[in-house]
User: Fold this.
Amino acid sequence: MREITADNLPDLARGAAVLGTGGGGDPFVGRLLAEQALKQHGPVTLLDVDEIDDDAVVIPTAFMGAPTVMLEKLPSGDEILGALRALEDLLGKRATHTVSIEAGGLNSMSPFVAAAEAGVPLIDADGMGRAFPELQMLLPTLAGISASPMALADERGNSVALRTDGNAWAERLARAATVEMGCSAAVSLYALTGRQAKDHLVPGTLTLCERVGRAIREAREGHDDPVTAAAATLGGRLVFTGKVADVQRTTTGGFARGTARLAGLAQDSGSTLELSFQNENLVATHDGNVVVSVPDLICVLDTDSGEPVTTETLRYGLRVSVLGVPCDPRWRTPEGLALAGPGYFGYDHTYVPLPAAEV
Assistant:
């Protein structure tokens, strides 16, 4: 158990955006929302997943929608508590804890808002170990846990309650509602018991986010390489260094979709890396060969500062380094690959697990 104050949030948001693999929302926006909530309501208690009772009522929260839209249509901060309260009403019980659905600069910060405003502890875990674009892509889905009942809320005070026939339908119907809400909304779903949280979440995610963010900051302050520091902390490896030569990006169906082409620099001079994304980076292709793909993590960092670069902020001329990081082993099972592997997104290559970096 530890108390999280606003002073902890910069490192947390930075590291969360790295684990967000280009998605999960803007870290600056997420940090501002969380800082405001903590300043208004006081510190949030962060608990290890093993510290909660088996009969705890764990209600996750997140933002859903296109990250490109959220840069212009900023969250008000009221949506998260609105979605949490709406789901509590559906369940007929109050949350004893909240937790992050995914890692990401916004979606690892928004549960701090929920925890502070609802006055409940936050669990140091998440449902993916990274960020994915669709809300059925959680480890609890692999365990047969229903995403619904679920609730969405927007900044106008609208709320939507859904009970769905499976988690894929939860994604489809919630995405349609989110589009009508302006392509961004808060969502609360996957209500869990404490036992289910222990068995089916990724433990220690927020602590890892803070470690990654701190490693980048300290490397920069010590005039060391922040990209190397991030890779070492995550057990990942550098797969490409280059300059963004072209970005093709559209916002369709509630997602930011597109590709980015990087021209190689330094040891990668003369080579090209193409990134394909749907909110999150999905596939990295080096000179026509797939080098990293979902469900493994593809993390893009500013080469000089080590700051994470989200897909909505990729722009021409930016010098970046691309890391490949192994995913949680549960995503590498046949069931995990069927849910969030390359085939689900329409790619025809065979998934080859990214090996862990040598220590």
